[in-house]
Amino acid sequence: MYPLYNFASEITGIIFAIEDNTAEQMVRQQMFEQEKNQALSRVVAGIAHEIRNPLSSIKTFVELIPKKFQSERFQKQITTHVPREIDRLNQLIEADRLCTAENSKC
Q1: 69 in Cβ contact with 41 (< 8 Å)
Q2: What share of the chain is helix, strand, coil (3-state, %, to 5)?
Q3: What is the pTM for the complete model shown?
Q4: pLDDT tens for residues 74-95?
């Protein structure tokens, strides 16, 4: 808002300057969405990596069953490691479930 002067330097009105910033707001919103999507992609990649580790361990043990099941050492390892890896998966799923629940504080 600016005063409007005449030739005698008397205020005769007011000038309002209005600027359309719709395009700027749209660009800001798009940037926000893009940053949000990138952050979500990083979280998903991290979760996928954490899930892949226990699954790889379980897969290895399952592949070895036909060859080594008679071994007492192998039986002890499979009965120790596979349940532990399944617990890790369950913890990841539970943590994810709690983080996506309504009113989450993750």
Answers
A1: no
A2: 70, 10, 20
A3: 0.57
A4: 999 999 999 999 999 998 888 8
